[in-house]
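User: Sequence for SbsA Ig-like domain-containing protein below. Tokens please.
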Amino acid sequence: MTARAAASTQRRSCPGRPSALVVSAAAKHPRLQGTARLLVGVLVGGALAVALSSCFAAPPQIISLEPNRGSTSVPADSTVRVVFDRAVAHASVVGRFSVIATPTTAQTVSPAIPGCDFSTVFAAATTAPCWIHWLDPQPGFELIHQGAVFRPATRYTFTLAGGFADAQGDRNDLDHHWDLTTAAAPLVSASTPADRGSDVAVDTRLAVSFSAPMDAPSTAGAIALLPVVPGTRVVRNLNDHSRFVILPGQMLAPRTTYSISVGGSARGEDEQFVGLPTVVRFTTGARLESTHAVVLAGLAAEDPTQVMLPALAPAAPGEPSAAPVVLTAPRCALAIGCGAVASGTPLLTYTAAAVSPDGSHVAVVVRNVTARTSSLQVIDTIDGAVLEDLPAGTLPSWSPDGAQLAFATPTGVDLLDLRSGAVSAVAAQTSLVAPPLWVKTTTLVLSTAASATTPAAVELVNRQLQARYSLPGAPGASIAAAVSPGGARIALGTATGGVLVVPAPGAPGSAQTLAGHLQPLGFAGEGTLVAVNTSSAAAQLLRISVVGGDTTVVVLGAGTTDLSSVRVAPDGRRLVCLAVDAHGVRQAYVASADGSGELAMTRFLSGGLEARSVGFSD
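Assistant: Structure tokens for SbsA Ig-like domain-containing protein:
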């Protein structure tokens, strides 16, 4: 703060000499001279104190400035506050407050704050781009200017000219000056993928990071992915407001050049516009990089009409996962209907789906509503091509390497070799009550239904040995529910509501019976089973030690969880489930195998689609 004028205050009349009568009396009485001198000293001292306080009262002073004098990197919408040591007359300040702006790359510019008329700020309404707010009862005022923000990277010099006074008329005639420097305009600081990236995965996590926290609506609206991908959303990271993730509504097309553009309408949280529009270009390859679940979705009154492949984890904490749509069922577009299908209703529905472990293929049971037939379609998720259409195929199950697909047919169990496209019979004249399971890539576990000549059983089919036989130790009418990630154990659900864990062919160990009424779901590691405990009225999700029998309750906190929908990932590290969210919409969720870190994979809105099933490779 500097002064350019001498301080002056309004003077008051000073009292006369208080010792005159005392001196006169002392002259007439010499004996009183000593006493008079003492009395004169006291009176003179008191009078001087009175005179100093009366004649030289201090003027009002500025005791606080916000932002402080010399502040740098000041946000563009920062309020400028001036606080005095006492109340000042408002009228004495009006017209004395001014500002000049000097950008770091230019001469002084006008207006200093674009859109702000400083000549009217003290009279402006609160709806004006800039206006003065008096801090009463605190002595001071502040400049509010959200509708007219500072220029970026600019030194502002504020002046409060001398002449402001308090209610008693004591006036401060100093000119007060202070500087501050605003932050640079926000810029794009990083992107995923990087500019000119190549061989980018078609399910890559797209993101743009800025040099400062950004306003969500304006910035999301300024970010565009071209060519347009239907259903694409742009979302700000909840934890890092400088990062925005682009969530394509479908897989990106392979071997295609895309651009992510950031327009000039993007604004920082301080309302400063982005300094430079940016375009990031990249070219996709023909690969995927994320692990996916498969979700079937549909309207409340319809069978599923959409197949989605949500990623199991977001690119960064605080942001949602992408959930690209692989299939959307067509609807009847004729006002008179399409045969037995009413106008506007789906011509196809999806009744089951399984995604290969690497996410590159998905097998979907498709029902043709008009023809009343169904088939198992095998789809390349990278380019969207339908590779196989297997009539009446159901219960698809992928091998751990994704090279083979086992499935049920009306005449038995078949196997599709994805490399050659060949379909071969695995078990003729066999009906299944559950999808086939895989022990590594060579052995199938079949849960067969009872027939007129054979009881229900769990059987093994060894593809290398061309052998088919009953699983040793498996009780009659049991169902194979899960195989451990390393292929060492098989969990069976028994007809009495129990669980028996048996060693897989060639694996060491013995059968282990687990206590209680349990519904086995999958393995979280070789020695830990995830199951629903149905022994009590309130079902519980448990992690059970296969050897020791120790149990741990798994708590899933998002919404109302349907425990029967829980599925465990083939590697045992994650589980997925369906749950009704706070808005009454059924969503698909993913969590660690212990229930921690639960996140929504879908974000359907009320009155629209909802998740119907969620799973993995079988």
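The helical segments are 20-28, 33-55, 90-93, 216-222.
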